[in-house]
């Protein structure tokens, strides 16, 4: 065994040289009437869609997009909560040869959505407001931005005859725009959908940027078709198994087309339900009602289930709970034998996809904190020092990843690409890890200044850039503070101008007005939870606030509350 911190796992399965749309079409032919998507509502409602229904609706919408001028390779933005209509929109974009740009909202004026739309040069925007009025405020803000700023020399005025904005359901109070129900009622056309190839770009996800601005991560058909977690061919038996996954559709871990192309029956609900902390048994009741065999549950969900385990008397257990997104320890293994037969820890990222998996933890097994197992098939790992040189085993360093599924680079961001890769296409994960003599990877933390709240990665700069706009503030510093349930929480510290009478309540009210929570993908968004006023900040020699000292001060204040 090499003394260097390098691991590889040769792929046992042949690569699939095909497109996602080919796989979904094949599954539609084999299992036309199978319910592949099941949405459960907190009100007890159940809505489902078969392969045949999904493919028919998506094909018709795709032909409409092509008829309206969408060409192969065009970027099309997609925004909304987890719904069946959202999946129709995503598949339609791919069938039309477009690239689905997944958007999530963080600020109330929707300018973050608009910025990504412009940066990606999107040619159209598909919007699902969801049921009720939760997303209407953001949509009205977005439409106002379109009317004021959309270049008119290349596009007609935004009205019912323009494909620039299209809604995936009828919405009371929004008139004059095309919507999916109306398109489905149109007569069929002879529009031909484009020929697609495995290397075609199809999905763009956004991820936290080092400057506070999101970076865009692009993946092809080939990338997502060869995730080692999935079986090569669904069978009549395997497709009957159901997997619960309420991750936001706009995040790589929640992308529905990746699952349905692999014949995985997806049960889902509103992503914000589980993170609220008081509804975990409602989520569990959905899982039980659908007789799911697997579930992807975040660490905070496991913690909530563990808190209820002494009163849980049901015999129902999952076969497997998959968990990841943050460092976990042996505490979380308490779900084994109560809620599940096995717990599997997984590790991945928006850029690298599915990277590692620990062998199943069964009753009586222990989990070392941060242990994420070894690489999945086709993945190589190593840890390096600041110079990019590989380290000996047992020595902490930055975890680097190489595989055919790692993204090719951030979209239109050469500066980020230069620092994200080292020689021979090794991607720098930004995680500090140790590779052990037992061929396991143990994550120990992050290099970058990122807050991990409930598996959502938050850049402090992004929050600071919004808050500093408030009149009367001299300095702001956003720091992470420990949280037993969500791993970390967002703490906003500030110093006011000498003559300002701004209070903590004033700053909190400003954040409530400017940071979107209700319409955010995970129900938390980027809004701070804790607020502390400082007379002055400890400063570094560079003239910047000393965040390490500020963080220590904030933690002490919380302990004394």
From TrEMBL:
Q: Which SUPFAM superfamilies does the record cross-reference, listed alphabetically?
A: Acetyl-CoA synthetase-like
- At the top level, the lineage of the source is Eukaryota
Q: Which PROSITE patterns match?
A: AMP_BINDING (PS00455)
Domain named AMP-dependent synthetase/ligase: residues? 25-411
* Name listed for the protein in its UniProt record: Acyl-CoA synthetase family member 2, mitochondrial
> What species does this protein belong to?
Magallana gigas (Pacific oyster)
